[in-house]
Amino acid sequence: MVRKAGILKEIFLALSMHNSPLKVAPNHPALRRVRTVSRLLDNAIPIPGTRFRLGLDPILGLLPGAGDFVGAALSVYIVIEAARFGLPRKTLVQMVTNLVLDSVGGSVPILGDVFDATWKANSRNLALLEAHVATPEPIKAADRRFVILIVLALLLLLIGIGVVATLFLSWVVRTIAG
């Protein structure tokens, strides 16, 4: 059964996590959900005759403004789960960097969608999470304050994308309306 939890519930769970890393089984339900989200956003659709796969992230990016916001919001879920699994600071920073590069690069009209299709930030972040899961020895988890800062930074990123999307859409409407 797919868990129907909102982003705020996920943030609350990330903030209330234990300070020690969780040992995550490869078939853990949350890890399966992260794999599904990553696959849908980055590799859902095979391109016939090639080895290339396209995800929903660059397709969402074709929607002016709102598509980038929705794609980034879905990508944040992977980082929040990574924090819940107790990934170390360095890895969480790498994941946020991937997401920021994806969001900024993807915001450029047309070229950004090509960037989204090739950068595949969610697949990169999944690989970082999978490497953590595969590590047999315990790793010091990021402390709670750091996780709060990461979550706040991601929320600011989403708000920024929303503001830029709103400004862009209002400019388009003003331009069309004359």
Automatic annotation (TrEMBL):
Transmembrane residue ranges: 59-80, 146-173
Pfam families given in the database record: DUF4112 (PF13430)
Key words, A-Z: Membrane, Transmembrane, Transmembrane helix
Organism domain of life: Bacteria
Name of protein: DUF4112 domain-containing protein
Organism: uncultured Leptolyngbya sp
